[in-house]
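Lab channel / #folding
Pinned by the channel admin:
"Please post every new chain as: sequence first, then the structure tokens as a reply. Keep commentary short and put observations after the output so the thread stays searchable."

First post following the new format, from NK:
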Amino acid sequence: MSDTPVIGVLALQGDVREHLIALASADALARPVRRPEELAEVDGLVIPGGESTTMSKLAVLFGMMEPLRERVRAGMPVYGTCAGMILLAEKILDPRSGQETVGGIDMIVRRNAFGRQNESFEAAVEVAGIDGGPVEGVFIRAPWVESVGAEAEVIAEHGGHIVAVRQRNVLATSFHPELTGDHRVHALFVEMVRAVK
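Reply from TO:
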């Protein structure tokens, strides 16, 4: 059996292509996932950035929300960036009407916490478990984590706010490492997938 994990990128909305490239460069077999039968074929999943309310509604519309929840509960490794972080939270402060989450990390997130699109920025972020110095993080209408439960591990902060969290097989960042050419966060996730494959 090949040691190369098959990792899907939830392709309902958002920066899917950049994640596929980052995963491939981290030695995973990457493919877009839009339907439950495609989800069933992957070892792990990335939930990309985008618009969290739209992604939530599309996941319900495409019949993906319950299969996603089931796979996360069953231990499938998942990595969410920006809107993906929001979808992996157990609770959202000030959610939009009808907005649902997949869950997986015992955390409360605040949407658009770092400001609007025109307040986007890049910053060097020290991430626990990643060697070689800080990761370059791109923050675009990014959330931050207000609080975490006992099982969630804070692995990065920026400006006094939690911006990266891990809970068992689930990883989430406020920022977009896939937009920088630095694929170390994806490499960390590929190793997480390999460990349970």
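NK: The chain has six helices and twelve strands.
TO: also worth noting, The first strand starts at residue 6 and ends at 10.
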